[in-house]
Amino acid sequence: MKNRSISFSPPDISELEIQEVCETLRSGWITTGPRVKEFENRLAEYFHTNKVVCLNSATASEELILRLLGIGEGDEVLVPAYTYTSSASAAIHVGAVVKFIDSQLDSCEMDYDAMEAAITEKTKAIIPVDLGGIVCDYDRIFEAAEDKKNLFTASNNIQNAIGRVAIVADCAHAMGASRHGKMAGEIADFSAFSFHAVKNLTTAEGGAATWRNIPGLDDQAVYHQFQLYSLHGQSKDALAKTQLGSWEYDIVGPWYKCNMTDIMGAIGLRQLERYPQLLTRRKEIIGKYDAVCDKLGVKHLVHYGEDFQSSGHLYLARVPGISCEQRNEIITQMAKRGIACNVHYKPLPMMTAYKKYGWDIKDFPNAYHYFEEEITLPLHTKLSDEDVEYVTANFEDVVKKYL
Ligand SMILES: *Cc1c(COP(=O)(O)O)cnc(C)c1O
């Protein structure tokens, strides 16, 4: 078979996005303005939520959600050990203590019994991660938070409206995913999405925060507080200041700078229009990968079922019984054939930053075992059918001697 070059996750940018960006540049308004507002409204329709706030990343979105919830020093936040660093680092930025939770056996989903057992009087939030684009078992997570309600004391009005530990979803992978007929975004109390260049829908960098319908929560007030946090605590944004004679503003807090620009909004608007087709294509590719893995006896995430639809973000495969060294050999051999594979994830307790906090991977045996056998295949919408065939044929050829 002739060698091909298959990258891991290149952005899928069409002429539509390019034109919209050019129009934005010519329009005279390039930072947060009409296109970001339009993108926010379209996203809220898509997520079935009342409001969306666009920001410059999922990490910033998660951080601002935690600030809005009044979470900080003295509080604890529960985070799966098996995720990307920003699920945990945002909690550290606000001054909270992160408590890592191991995975279920043979799964990359949190061990919900261990999660429930870890809830104390200090616990203020749980950060479930919809890994690979598959929505977590929020029924179980909400149940755990409800069961431990008696330990919870609210420290601001939003916490009070929620009335228990807040569920703040890391939906970086989950744009467009659903479970029990509900979209990622309308399930958890608050959700943070990523539009980073490798994600399903991209604005180059970018992210968004949204929240479900919470009785007693003033959506406009929450939206306004996000605006303040993300734009210096300035009482008027740049667009409002262009109104005739309306130069004067106040600074109500010494806050942050993480707003989305209209150039990013322009990319997002056009990506969103194309997004249903992109999801369909991901599903097709996953079907082909599943067929080969099932034939070989390679385990993989299950992205689609009767009552759930994944966003098909990542194809996590596991070769039973292999060691880390063998996994790395497979990745190297795939790379020699021009195919970029990856590992999702090296558990956070193995990373230098978290080891310094005293975490030890020995306490997370399930996360470690999953990591040992895990290989992520390239999954994106720039893959042609021939590319997909090339990946599956080579994967089969490389992996068969490890089975
Ligand atoms: C990409 C990613 C993030 C961070 O997204 P940014 O927009 O880059 O901040 C957070 N969590 C997970 C699981 C991710 O994969």
From TrEMBL:
* Keyword flag Disulfide bond: no
Q: Which InterPro entries did the record assign?
A: DegT/StrS_aminotransferase (IPR000653), PyrdxlP-dep_Trfase (IPR015424), PyrdxlP-dep_Trfase_major (IPR015421), PyrdxlP-dep_Trfase_small (IPR015422)
Q: Name one GO biological process term.
A: polysaccharide biosynthetic process
GO MF annotations, alphabetized? pyridoxal phosphate binding; transaminase activity
**Which UniProt key words apply to this protein?**
Aminotransferase, Pyridoxal phosphate, Transferase
Q: Write out the catalytic residues in the record.
A: K199
Q: Which SUPFAM superfamilies match?
A: PLP-dependent transferases
Q: Give the modified residues of type N6-(pyridoxal phosphate)lysine.
A: K199
Specify the superkingdom. Bacteria
Q: Which family does it belong to?
A: Belongs to the DegT/DnrJ/EryC1 family.
| PANTHER family in alphabetical order | DTDP-4-AMINO-4,6-DIDEOXYGALACTOSE TRANSAMINASE, TRANSAMINASE
Please report the name of this protein according to its UniProt entry: DegT/DnrJ/EryC1/StrS family aminotransferase
